[in-house]
Amino acid sequence: MKSKLNFFQKVIFAFNIFFAACLLIAYILPFVPPKFSAFLSILNLGLPVFMLINLGFALYWILRLKLHFIVSMLLVLGGYSYVNKIFIFKDKSKEQVKSSLKVMSYNVRLFNEYDWIDIDNVGQKISDFIAEESPDVVAFQDYKRTDGLDMNAFPYSFEKFKTKSSKIGIAIYSKYRILNKGSIDFPNTHNNAIYADILIHNDTLRIYAAHLESLKVIPDVKQLQKENHQKLISRVGKSFMKQQEQARMLAENFEDTDLPKIVCIDMNNTPFSYVANQLLSHNLEDAFIESGQGLGKTFDFDFLPLRIDAILNEKSIENIDFKNYDIRLSDHYPIMASFKLSD
């Protein structure tokens, strides 16, 4: 291999170093609170893109027999643990059990209240989907009461709206009895988190439905290009800082109970973000990483599939299956995790 570069290749390598630096920063950011630098935190959203760009640079230098491929290749290989949070490369064997608990999480975007998709009776179609998949517990984010929603199979429920006049809320529906319930009540936002202590046979679990601060970004690159970039960066940065505080409040509630926990959450952030690390540090694991397969997409950002919804469970609860669905009835896709119940 040769190391000498011509002028054009020097320009290419300069861009290579820039994107290598971006990827390195993105690797570090999950350990840096957004309040330290909201601007830098935005780079974390681009981590998968930076990895692909660096992989492209590495292949470019390999094809030209240049040792310069080492920079990007080492960075890409060093980020395998991040890739595993959005894509599971191998099929995982599913344990066959007699008794399991199936928990679904779904941001339903107000059941198409504002006709963002050209589909009628979205509430009824979501009801039919849930009936077909037959979860034992369903957690809804971006929830509202709607005539089309039929949840009669779930005799127990807990709805929470931030104000009496607010349409936007969050809800938990359960086939098992709810013994206790409560709300975290995030300040200065419509977003919120609730929990329900559910009696399952002789055990009690705490199930959370959580919705962290939205980034308030239209998932269309052309539309984003029309926005004032400074205002966009400022808005996203403020949302990250709110998410940090909301995750802290949620984690504090974790410490207030000894009950095993399952957290159904729309993070509005990536699984390799600071807030994800903050929550997982409380003896939780990511059900998708444990039992998922393939691409963990839960949201489409134009051409970029994102996994911003997750089901986290206490490590003492055995996760045996995880499903991603490709049903287009919201701007999010539903997910469901299955857990082994004691005999």
From TrEMBL:
<keyword id="KW-0234">DNA repair</keyword>
<keyword id="KW-0255">Endonuclease</keyword>
<feature type="transmembrane region" description="Helical">
    <location>
        <begin position="12"/>
        <end position="32"/>
    </location>
</feature>
<protein>
    <submittedName>
        <fullName>Metal-dependent hydrolase, endonuclease/exonuclease/phosphatase family</fullName>
    </submittedName>
</protein>
<dbReference type="GO" id="GO:0006281">
    <property type="term" value="P:DNA repair"/>
</dbReference>
<dbReference type="GO" id="GO:0004519">
    <property type="term" value="F:endonuclease activity"/>
</dbReference>
<dbReference type="InterPro" id="IPR051547">
    <property type="entry name" value="TDP2-like"/>
</dbReference>
<keyword id="KW-1133">Transmembrane helix</keyword>
<dbReference type="GO" id="GO:0004527">
    <property type="term" value="F:exonuclease activity"/>
</dbReference>
<feature type="domain" description="Endonuclease/exonuclease/phosphatase">
    <location>
        <begin position="104"/>
        <end position="332"/>
    </location>
</feature>
<keyword id="KW-0227">DNA damage</keyword>
<keyword id="KW-0812">Transmembrane</keyword>
<dbReference type="InterPro" id="IPR005135">
    <property type="entry name" value="Endo/exonuclease/phosphatase"/>
</dbReference>
<feature type="transmembrane region" description="Helical">
    <location>
        <begin position="69"/>
        <end position="89"/>
    </location>
</feature>
<dbReference type="Pfam" id="PF03372">
    <property type="entry name" value="Exo_endo_phos"/>
</dbReference>
<keyword id="KW-0460">Magnesium</keyword>
<keyword id="KW-0472">Membrane</keyword>
<keyword id="KW-0378">Hydrolase</keyword>
<keyword id="KW-0269">Exonuclease</keyword>
<dbReference type="GO" id="GO:0046872">
    <property type="term" value="F:metal ion binding"/>
</dbReference>
<keyword id="KW-0479">Metal-binding</keyword>
<dbReference type="InterPro" id="IPR036691">
    <property type="entry name" value="Endo/exonu/phosph_ase_sf"/>
</dbReference>
<keyword id="KW-0540">Nuclease</keyword>
<feature type="transmembrane region" description="Helical">
    <location>
        <begin position="38"/>
        <end position="62"/>
    </location>
</feature>
